[in-house]
Amino acid sequence: MASITNRRGIWSLALGACAVLVGTRLPVRAASLDASGDLRLGLRTYALARVGSQAFDFTDNAEVLEGSFPASSAGHVRQLRYFTELALDHDLDRLVHDGIGPFALTNPLPFRLSGLKYNLVFRSEYDGVYDFGPREFSTAEAFRAATNPLTGVPLPPEAVSAQRQHLRNIAVHRERLFQAFVEANAGDLFIRFGRQILVWGETDVFRLLDNINPTDSSFGGFLIPLDERRVPLDMLRLNYSIGRVGPLSDLYVEGYGAVDKDVAYYPGIPAGSPWAPPVLGYPNTLIYPVFTRPAATLTAARGGVQVKANVALPAVGSMTVGLAHYYTRFDLPGIENQVHKNFLFIPFPNTMGAIVQSVLTAPMVQVSGLTSTFVIPSRYVRSIGLTGEPVIRSELAYFHNEPRYSQAQLDPFVFIRTPECRAAAEDALCTGGRRVGNSWNYVLGIDHNQTIRWLNPNQSILFSTQFFYKHLLNAVKRQPIRSQTGVVENGEVIPVPEEVDKTQLQLPFVRTPIDQYVQTLLVTTSYYSGQVTPAMILVYDWSGGFAALPQVTLSRDPFRFTMGYDLISAAHLKGASGVSLLHDRDNVFFQVEYAL
Prior knowledge:
about 600 residues; 18-stranded antiparallel beta barrel; 4-stranded mixed sheet
């Protein structure tokens, strides 16, 4: 039987584990469009080609379904991405100061309005792999060869057509007004209103307090930098600068409220995408996903507050500390799988024969956290050979009611054996329900610039490492349980099937550890006045998974050429960071970029 989770929607589930390429942001340079320089246009565009150096480990036979769909040999193109972002920034300060036109209405205000501007960002994305890539991606051949895991019968033509069209609708091209906001300062109060992105916290690569905006892996995949995958929300952001209060300096309070229905699992990664998790990328008609998005109302609004300040730290100088609490919706959805009591023989109506209905929701999650950042003065570290001043940053976060999963909850062969289901009518719906849970999360990061003359006589080398820890509270114990077809192992899982056993009709999900440990390391420097920038990024997941991502960028403004290799290794599929899910995605990539 195919996966009982949404084959399109469980998508980025820890797939951000390898989105650790050096982040790209809006261009810092811009071209003035008027004589006064108030109207500026920024442009960033690139073309990226990614070639797989490892075959997808896809298996589809009479006994088992596993691995990444569709089958793709080493040497085949996996991505032909074209990206353009235009940013228009209009500074209205001069018009306010001179009282031109309607801006004269701001003169009687009891406060001085400054920094008034608006910003518009347009984004266009296109992936040519579905148009002129290898046959497994540019044609429907792989879809036509897919079969119903229960019967072995090929998918009906209408299902093949619908799923192939869904893939093309989501993953071929997208054009949108990405961000649009207006901002201003009213005395010590900063206001920004509109569609925008807000980042809190002290982490890179993986997110703790940085869970305000959802991420999107439906277009481009997990190797796209995190800054490029964040989804803006319709939001009001307020930042009030207080200044000095007792031992605190540079004190400010920042809050936001967002009324928006966007979530990470919609539209999700479609079947047939080279970036879909194992098994979930296989097209099938047995699962009918039901996407439930939050309402765009005040009662369903997300929001929170952060307080940040500098405080004196004995023997060090000062430390930046922060306290945050907010309500958000995580990238992982809540999942409720529904089946009829005799689900193998009773399909849901109007679903092309689906026997499992998977309802995805976005429960409200509370995030509370503390952050701190301080610098160790060089006088303390010179004795051990360090030439710079290490930056120590840490973050502690408590997640309340985050989506969680167990084998017994997701597996219909298990939950149809519950007393409630056994006592129900023959055509009654049975479900494993939804689960939420709490967790403690911590990260310790160290950033250090070190001079190593024999490696680089002119520039220092940046070493940045992070250690992440996560502990699941009240986790489901791992123990054998009875299913309709035998004995399976219960416990905490992620909603990605390890395989589909067609003969035994068993569906083991990928396990996730109760205590999770992940280490990251970035090493980078520059040569020839910044024209050559090599970098090495390493990710090690203690539950089983390793990624090494070397790359080098050649810069000659306004052009940049980057080439690199993504090596991902794991013996077994595990949850936690999700690195192991990507074990067959090794590739070499080439990117040409132009920034104005």
